[in-house]
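Assess this one:

_____
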Amino acid sequence: MFFAVLFFILGAAVGSFSNVLIYRMPRGESINFPASHCQSCKMPLKPYHNIPIFAWLFLRGKCTFCGEKISFQYPLIELASALLCVLAYFYETRGLEMFADGFYGAIFKAAMLGICFILLLALSIIDFRYKAVPDPLLFASVAISLLYGFNLPTSFDSEGLLRAFDSFINAAIFMFAFWLLRAVVSLALKREAMGSADIFIAGVMGAILGIKLGLMAIYVSALLTLPAYVIVRKRGYELPFVPFLSLATLIVYAFKDWFIYILGLIYG
């Protein structure tokens, strides 16, 4: 439970920082300056005001200076991020004895995976709100998903390097496939189709899930998109695809044993 608690704290802390990214990056603001402050009265926050999840509860969802309500989004994202990191920890270390061979490598992979899922969550929220996402977050998500392919401390032997190279190749294949699909569909429709951000998320899918499970995730994302599209199509709402790709990646990863079983039935 020590590592589970540690990953919960890690996820909550990264989730707290992702709240800053979600708010500031689409507005073109610095993520470093000014320091955390109330969006209403602009008063700088005390260190204990920034404790993930608990600060919002202690303050009862209101600014301690002006009494303005603090959005419920902040603790919700922090809690979701903490749970994503815990999920990554349990899935990556299951079947391993603590401190046994491969345990520390699994810890590293779990940390990279948890952070990657948190970035996908942040990208999804930004895409829902603005229909565009910051390039630095996309680049970071792809880079961290590639680091997930490493299995420290054995990644620098020949077998470990091959596994890491496979993750890179899978990401490249998915990114190229989405780029080609976007180009063909845009040419057919004579207008820009799909967002360029989808290409990077496809790379994340390939790096984390591999080819077969990545294709399953694309199929799942299409299934998730259909009912949402039916609901919004008459309202003229442009439906972002990043949240559905991200959610499908999480679903396929969390239930990959089931999807592997399904693939076994399909391919015999």
